[in-house]
Amino acid sequence: MTNDHPQSPPQPPPRTGTEPPALTGSPFASDTFTSATFVTVGSGPLLALASTWLLTRGGMVLLLLRDTLGIGGVGREVDLYHHWYGQFAQGTFPPGDVTWQYPPGAGLVIMSPGILPWLTYFQAFVALALLADAVIACALARADSARLTHGAWFWVCGLPLLLHLPLARYDVQTTALAVLALLALGGRSTVAHQLGGALAGIGAMVKVWPVLTLIGTPRGRTTKEAWTAAVVAAVALLATLALFFSGPLGFLRQQGDRGIQIESLGGTALALAQATGAWPGRVEFRYGAFEYVGPYVSSIGHLALLLTVIAFGWLLLWRLQARRWTPATPLDAAFTAVLLFTATSRVISPQYMIWLLGLAAVCLTCRDTVMRPVALLLLPAAALSSLAYPVLYDQVIAGTAQGIAVMVLRNALLLAAALLAARRLWTSTVATTVE
Questions:
Q1: CA distance 366 to 152
Q2: Mean of the per-residue pLDDT values for the chain?
Q3: Closest of 219, 234, 237, 414 to residue 330, by C-alpha
């Protein structure tokens, strides 16, 4: 760490232009001060963090119990999980159910409330979501305490911006797997790399995207150990589920038939076209979500898929071209990858923000990260996501001016965050100078 006292020996060597920017004791003295610097310097007391977690999560639980905000019914998704739970109890994945669009590992999360038989399914599911949330906060706090960072504060204060939605979706549990995987991959031992890879592999079997946490593993031994463990864990989990349940891969057909969800970037473009009278389509409830139906929808879906392929190609190119690797690079790369795949998706459900907040928080546990401004963009994006659903969702469906405005702002922030993340990742690892 640098300081502002020239009489204090020894002096740090001059910057070469290829090193990550140094931090100073005060964010205002930093030569890279941005509006996001406040989240990276200092470490708040754990008691304050725990108190904030309890207060905010208590508020989220109260909102879920009332569940009347906006269109209401956020907790109905847990009823659907309960329905699937009954089918798993009969030894089968949901047969022919178009709303089942998840990898087979998701079944374990759906069945997990059964370990708390003294609670109702709803109560047990929420309790386990809170437990996963607390595990994330504790893991981030542990990393923060060693590095004087504020990733845990970002998570604890950022998640409530989504109101009570995180407690009624299984994305917090999935995010916990990804967060723990990334933190484990930062270790030096083979066991740590294998643990991180195994968690990422299990996460991929739960909701696919956690496999992207391995995109930035350092070349050589770490990559080999992590990816091998990920493949072994994923195959072992799939084989186990296939042994005890029928139809574990049925989700592939349902997922392939998805259209353009109204919250996606493509959906926002169609909403604008519909509002101006340039597009005659409509909104329908299909595959468990509201999607646009009409001319050019298929073409926009293919374009979204093409953009996803281009994003994947860019990530491969980045990995081949990267020359500088810092402790933050694996974290920044994982965050960037998930941002790119989210922004180009045909479906941007509000719970996707849970993933992004978790990965941003992990980035902020490392002082070398270049993702601070990107993380800051996610906070208003999360607030707008909860405004879109559930608060104003009826207007988003109807395509009113207010509903469209909220979606345009939210998606513009997500797109800006994805492009900024890609630029900063490339600049910090590939380009000849660091901005």
A1: 12
A2: 88
A3: 219
* Strands 289-293, 282-286: pairing kind: antiparallel
Nearest residue to 359 via CA among 192, 163, 136, 205: 136
pLDDT, tens digit (0-9, with 9 covering 90-100), for 55-76: 999 999 999 999 999 999 999 9
Q: Order of strands, edge to edge, in the sheet holding 289-293?
A: 260-261, 289-293, 282-286
Give the CB-side neighbour count of residue 431, counting CA atoms within 13 A: 12
Tokens for 88, please give them: 């798993």
| CA–CA distances in Å: residue 34 to residues 37, 40, 73, 372 | 5, 11, 39, 8
DSSP letters, 104-123, are TTHHHHHHGGGG-TTS-HHH
Taking the whole predicted model, whether its pTM rises above 0.85 is answered as yes
The structural domains of the chain, with segments of one domain joined by +, span: 40-429
The residues pairing with 282 across neighbouring beta strands, listed in sequence order, are 293
Q: How far apart are CA 188 and CA 190, in angstroms?
A: 7
> What does the pLDDT read at residue 21?
42
* Residue 153 Cα to chain centre, angstroms: 16
Overall size of the chain counted in residues: 435
Helix (H, G, I), strand (E, B) or coil at 249: coil
C-alpha dihedral sign at 191, 195, 198, 204: negative
Q: Rounded to whole angstroms, what are the CA distances from 5 to 1, 31, 91, 170, 204?
A: 12, 16, 69, 51, 49
